[in-house]
Specification:
about 100 residues, mainly alpha
Length: about 100
């Protein structure tokens, strides 16, 4: 029988799980450059171990998967992620990747 975790909130485990799940859902729906960028963003959010950032990342990647993603929703989620985890903005190529996503 595997490990059983119950009633865990705001832990490194839940943040990592949310972020990894969100990335895995989105990576096949974007090009390889965008997937690499999203992976780097995920790594920064996991380092920060911030549940709010993990939830924002989930919303951001969910919106990306929509056939016609809302640019304003993506911009809002991205701005909120930057507010919570400012180091995300220092990722090499972040500005270009976001500009490409927001068209």
């Amino acid at each position: 029988m595997g490990d059983v975790y119950k009633n865990i909130t705001a832990s490194n485990l839940t943040v990592r799980s949310k972020v990894d799940h969100s990335f895995n859902d989105a990576k096949d729906k974007v090009d390889s450059e965008t997937a690499r960028f999203l992976s780097e963003v995920a790594d920064e959010i996991k380092k920060a171990n911030d549940e709010r950032a993990a939830n924002l990342y989930r919303k951001f990647t969910s919106e990306l998967q929509d056939p016609t993603p809302s640019k304003s929703a993506l911009r809002g989620f991205w701005d909120d992620i930057l507010e919570v985890v400012p180091t995300v903005g220092t990722i090499a190529g972040a500005a270009g990747a976001i500009a490409k996503l927001l068209g």
